[in-house]
Specification:
Elements: H1 15-22, E1 25-30, E2 35-37, E3 45-51, E4 53-59, E5 65-72, E6 75-77, H2 79-84, E7 91-94, E8 98-104, H3 105-112, H4 116-142, H5 145-155, H6 159-162, H7 165-171, H8 176-188, E9 192-195, E10 198-201, H9 204-211
Antiparallel strand pairs: 1-8, 2-7, 3-6, 3-8, 4-5, 4-7, 9-10
Helix pairs in contact: 5-8, 5-9, 7-8
Length: 212
């Protein structure tokens, strides 16, 4: 499976090892809007996103959707839950047409998890997810709306062009009206510039000052 080479997780493996993984893996395509997995479903496979992007989310007690993150290919998805053998802690839906490689985890664990390079890559991948979680906590609990938007744009500059305003507001847990006011504020501060197609960043370091 040559697609496995897209991910740093498998880049140290030989062609023979990749062929071996291919014997207990399958490639699955999904259309935009299709659920990859639901919260509390059992984990059976190591999931590698190789095409498209997905959104990870939870539903709160008031039936509101809480976005935990967006992932673009190539990326491992929910590897901590898979490694620990626990149900998925959140749901995942495709934001675009895409594809994943499903790797039978029991077979993978038996044949590859004792490889030091693979174990180290698991640690690297989990470390990245912990950092994302820390950023999510900071973004939604510690920062006010202006600092929250500034940090989000600083970390995900392409969101200004790839997400519609209502999607951006949803991710930041703001009302569209609050988002609109805050975007205008950042424009007045000459950190963003309004264009016919939306906003673009003109002062990244200025954005950083607002949330550090």
């Amino acid at each position: 499976m040559t697609e496995l080479k897209q991910s740093y997780f498998f880049e140290s493996l030989s062609d023979e090892q990749l062929r071996q993984i291919g014997t207990f893996s399958k490639k699955v395509r999904y259309p935009k809007g299709r659920i990859l997995f639901y919260e509390k479903e059992p984990t059976k496979s190591l999931v590698l996103l190789i095409e498209g992007s997905i959104k990870i989310y939870k539903i709160d007690l008031k039936n509101n959707e809480v976005v935990l993150g967006h992932f673009k290919a190539p990326s491992l998805i929910a590897e901590m839950a898979t490694l620990e053998g626990i149900p998925y802690p959140a749901s995942a839906v495709f934001e675009t047409d895409g594809a994943v490689i499903m790797i039978d985890f029991e077979q993978f664990k038996k044949e590859f998890l004792n490889d030091p390079a693979i174990s180290f890559n698991f640690i690297k991948s989990l470390s990245k997810k912990i950092k994302r979680l820390e950023n999510l906590i900071s973004l939604n609990i510690v920062l006010d709306s202006t600092a929250r938007l500034a940090k989000y744009i600083y970390d995900h500059e392409d969101a200004l062009s790839s997400l519609k305003n209502y999607e951006l507001a949803h991710d930041l847990h703001m009302t569209p009206e609050t988002l609109s006011r805050t975007l205008k504020k950042l424009s007045v501060l000459q950190l963003l510039e309004r264009q016919p197609s939306g906003y673009r960043v003109v002062n990244r370091e200025g954005l950083k000052v607002l949330f550090e």
